[in-house]
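Question:
When you can, review this sequence-structure pair and walk me through the tokens.
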Amino acid sequence: MRDNPVLSESLEVFFGEGHGFAVYFYLLIILAPVEFLSLYLPSLDAQMWSGSASLFKVCSVTALLLIAYFALRVANQEFAPWRFLTTRRWVREKGLTAATIGKGQLTFLTVHVVFSVLLCVPFLIWAAAIARTSPGRVTGALLLLFFYALSYSVWGLVTLVLWERRFETRQVFIRCFFFSLVLLSALVYLPLNPVAFLLAYLGRQELEPLTLAGLRWSATAIHFAFHLCLGGLGLTAYLWALKREVAL
């Protein structure tokens, strides 16, 4: 995998040339004040949000939204887009296959998500210590952050391949996609929403099961099935679009 030129290019642009440092700066510069203010400022809903007991919940939700959102933008190559070769150039000039390009882009996206989660770990551990959150819950929250980020961000790769030469179209689509999906999931069936599920998990609350065709379905099972389908459909669409672009 180290010999993959697509992965090497992404690592060089983000870490070698430093174009990706802005992403991690934005992530931390937003998370840090939220953590500080949520601890020291009063809230409209004191029972749920204010004070040390809910600090880890606030920080986890903030990290979830930030990591997933920026992962979508990274997958969409919104940072230093002029430094990345297009799919057609990889194929025509470098002779790469769709499989090689796909492995490189997916691996870099995974590396970025892991690095983003690790950057948030010190803040989350500090918040967990103040809120007296168990290590098991902290570990579970970190795994959920990783899971959600990959489930959503793979759609950034879909837009990248479908509209590679339409930068503005890609930007508008992924923002509408992300925020609409988060809002609609809460309106259609609350346990589908990642924020609601994360809060319920950290608060040890039971989510209302879904009753369909006379059967009661576990809210947890429905939640993970939905996000696995979301990520799976995104991955399938990405691979299809990539093969289509290479064949043109």
